[in-house]
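Work Package 4 report. The design task specified in the project plan requires that, given a folded chain encoded as structure tokens, an amino acid be chosen for each position. We show below one input record used in the internal validation round.
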């Protein structure tokens, strides 16, 4: 039976904090890499993350903090990466330690910029981590709700089902239910695309389209997601599973959604810069839109919603015009 061994969390934001809370309850010890020493010092003094999910209290005696990624990678067997995708490469650049023998789990819902690879592929191609040592964590899971211990369903994707099961055993608890899947690439792409569609939904919200239209938008979004997943990784999957459709719905509709909030501001006429400043947190879909557009240049999948969001965010075409064109293309 596979054992995850000592587990470390890489990243200091809200999802990293929620995941750390879930894991440490089970293991009573975690390693935790955060980029800033002052953040670590404040965390130890206050007993909670000073910036994100401040209501989640930790017994800091159960945590080995370090701002040195090499120390964490050397000491821990399972590494859960939860940095926003635009910063992943910078953190990894500091690595002097091999990670190919580690169990690497990515909870990042983004594409590695410039490389245009989902994170598991990046770890495989650049760091030689074999696919059986790579997993992803998906599912509808706002960090804020996990922090409040509201019932949430997560999915661990890994081609080695024993390893996936071992990590789900670590996560499963009173308010976390988990299942396993072998569709790592499909889950990772779906997790990126749902952010793009949540921005679309937010833009429409900002433009005062109503619930009737939002339902049509999300119906078209799931069809678009399905077309893309079938093209890039055509295995049998049920797109209505919570890790695909469920995550799209929560990001598309929830008040906690960063991507939806960001899109709403764009629809209301904010500039991208001012929307990003106002957010204070990362809207992954902004970066995901550009990467997915570039990736789809290779696949040529019909993706009108992705195209519309790209045109609004990167070509500065008016949201009114783009969304009107999109509405004409829907059935
Ligand atoms: N939040 C959620 O509910 C969920 C998030 N995810 C995914 O988790 C990943 C992390 O997102 P999330 O936790 O929400 O992020 P947050 O917005 O909560 O936190 C952002 C993190 O990025 C760091 N950061 C900011 N600027 C830089 C920089 N220039 N260089 C390096 N690091 C920087 C911040 O560090 P500092 O504080 O030091 O600035 C902080 O640790 C994303 O891929 C997201 O899609 C997945 C599921 C749920
Ligand atoms: O991935 C997430 C929920 O599953 C979080 O992203 P949003 O904050 O945009 O919803």
């Amino acid at each position: 039976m596979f054992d995850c061994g000592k587990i470390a969390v890489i990243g200091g934001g809200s999802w990293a904090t929620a995941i750390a809370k879930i894991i440490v309850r089970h293991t009573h010890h975690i390693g935790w890499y955060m980029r800033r020493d002052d953040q670590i010092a404040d965390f130890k003094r206050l007993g909670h993350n000073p910036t994100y999910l401040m209501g989640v209290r930790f017994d800091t005696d159960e945590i080995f903090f370090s701002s040195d990624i090499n120390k964490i990678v050397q000491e821990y067997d399972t590494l859960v990466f939860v940095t926003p995708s635009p910063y992943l490469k910078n953190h990894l650049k500091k690595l002097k330690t091999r990670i190919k023998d580690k169990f690497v789990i990515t909870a990042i819902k983004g594409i590695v910029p410039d490389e245009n690879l989902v994170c598991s592929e990046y770890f495989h191609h650049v760091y030689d981590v074999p696919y059986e040592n790579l997993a992803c964590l998906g599912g509808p899971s706002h960090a804020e709700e996990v922090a409040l211990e509201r019932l949430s369903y997560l999915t661990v994707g890994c081609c080695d089902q024993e390893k996936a099961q071992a990590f789900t055993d670590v996560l499963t608890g009173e308010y976390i239910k988990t299942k396993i899947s072998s569709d790592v690439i499909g889950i990772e792409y779906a997790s990126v695309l749902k952010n793009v569609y949540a921005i679309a939904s937010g833009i429409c919200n900002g433009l005062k389209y109503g619930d009737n239209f939002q339902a049509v938008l999300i119906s078209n979004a799931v069809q678009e997601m399905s077309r893309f997943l079938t093209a890039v990784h055509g295995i049998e999957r049920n797109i209505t599973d919570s890790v695909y459709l469920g995550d799209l719905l929560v990001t598309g509709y929830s008040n906690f959604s960063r991507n939806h909030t960001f899109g709403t501001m764009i629809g209301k006429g904010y500039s991208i810069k001012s929307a990003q400043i106002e957010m204070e947190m990362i809207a992954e879909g902004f970066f995901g839109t550009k990467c997915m557009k570039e990736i789809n240049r290779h696949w040529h999948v019909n993706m009108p919603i992705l195209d519309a969001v790209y045109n609004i965010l990167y070509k500065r075409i008016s949201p009114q015009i783009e969304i009107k064109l999109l509405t004409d293309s829907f059935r």
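The pocket of 1,3-dihydroxyacetonephosphate (ligand 2) is lined by residues 109, 140-142, 195, 198, 247, 250-251, 257-259 (CB under 6 Å). Validation will be extended to a larger panel in the next phase.
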